[in-house]
Amino acid sequence: MVLGRWGRMIRADWMLYLFLIPGLLYFVIFKYLPMYGIMIAFQDYSPFKGIAGSPFVGLKHFMRFFEDDAFITVFRNTLLISLYKLIFGFPVPIILALMLNEVRVLWFKRTAQTLFYIPHFFSWVIFGGIVIQVLSSKGMVNSVIAFFGGDPILFMAEKSFFRSILVISDILKESGWASIIYIAAIAGVDPALYEAVRMDGAKKRHEIWHVTLPGIKSTIIILFILQLGNILELGVQQVFMLYNPLVYEVGDIIDTYVYRVGLTEQKYSFATAVGLFQATVGLILIYMANFLAKRYGGGGLW
C-alpha cells in the first residue's frame, strides 16, 4: 500500500522529483559519502596504507589536541570571535532589511541594495587585501588620523584591534547579502496587519515592533539556530588573509591551527579529529537552540 501510494505521488509530480535528483546527488556524493573518511580521526592514517590498513589508535588525536598548550588559546579565540560576530553581526542584516523595506524611492532602494550586496561576491583574498590597504600605515584611515594631527596606528599588528577588525570586516562583507532573506520574509507579512495598526494610530516604530518583527520571527529564529551551530567554524579564509604572527595570540582560531599544524605537516588524522570535534559541538548547540526555541514558542528547524 505504501509503495503504491508513493508510486502514484511520483507519477503525479514526476517533473518535480526529476528536478530534485541533482540536489540529492550533490548531498549524497559530497556530504554523506565523505563521512566514511571520519574513521581516520581514530587512526594513525597513512595515505600509502589507506583507511583499511591504517592502525586504530582510538582517541589519541583528540587527547593530543586537548592537551596541546595551544588548545586553550585557539578555542578561546574561536569562541570569542564567534560570539562577537553573533552579538554584533547577527542583528545588522535584520536592521538593514527593515531600513530598506521603508525606502519608497525605487531607484535609490535598488542602488543601495546593489551596493550592499556587491562585497559578498568578492573573495576574502580581494576583500582582505582591501581591508589591509585601508588600515595600513599609509592607508585611508591613517591618512585621516594624520590629517587631524595624530600618529599612525599599525592596526593589523595591534592585538587590541584585530578581533574588532575581523568582526567589522565580516559585517561589511556579508550583511547586505544576508539581508535578502529578511527582505523576502518582510514581503510575506500580511499588508492588512499594517492597515489595522495604522487605523489604531500606530506610528512607524510601532508597525515595525508589533507587526514586522513578529511577522519574521520564525525566520530570525531559524537563521539564529543555524549560525549558532557554526559557532566553532569561523572559516579559514578571512582569518588566514588578515592575521600575522604578531596577532596569533588573539587571532589564531581552530581552523587556522588545523591548517597550520594538521594539513601543512600532513597530519591528516589530527586534522580530521579536530574537525569532528567542531562538528560535534555544533550539532549539540543546534539541538539545544532548537529545543529552547520550541519550548518557548518560537518554532524551530524541526
Automatic annotation (TrEMBL):
InterPro entries in UniProt: MetI-like (IPR000515), MetI-like_sf (IPR035906)
Residue intervals of the ABC transmembrane type-1 domain: 75-289
UniProt-listed Pfam families: BPD_transp_1 (PF00528)
Gene3D superfamilies in the record: MetI-like
Signal peptide: none
Keywords from the named record: Membrane, Transmembrane, Transmembrane helix, Transport
Superkingdom classification of source: Bacteria
Transmembrane segments annotated in the record for this chain: 14-33, 86-108, 114-132, 177-196, 208-232, 268-293
Keyword hit for Transport: yes
Compartments in which it is found: Cell membrane; Membrane
Topology of this chain in the membrane: Multi-pass membrane protein
Family stated for the protein in its record: Belongs to the binding-protein-dependent transport system permease family.
Protein name in the entry: ABC transporter permease
Organism: Paenibacillus chungangensis
